Amino acid sequence: MKLETLTEKEMLEISAGGMEKCLAGIALGAGAGFISGSGKTWTLGPYGVIYGGGAGALVGGVLGGTKSC
User: Fold this and answer.
1) What's the domain of life for this entry (predicted)?
2) 3-state class (DSSP) for residue 7
């Protein structure tokens, strides 16, 4: 398949498929990071869970996006 022969619609479909893969990787990483981060900080109370889960989700989302994109 040559890129020169692809129509604009076909190129947009290819791009959209890649974007879905990236978003799925980010969401999966963020979810796993939230669970991991909040699980490690639950002994610190509610604020520990919020901050630990948020930090875990951020790191997990970045790592998940990096791997899938």
Assistant:
1) Bacteria
2) coil
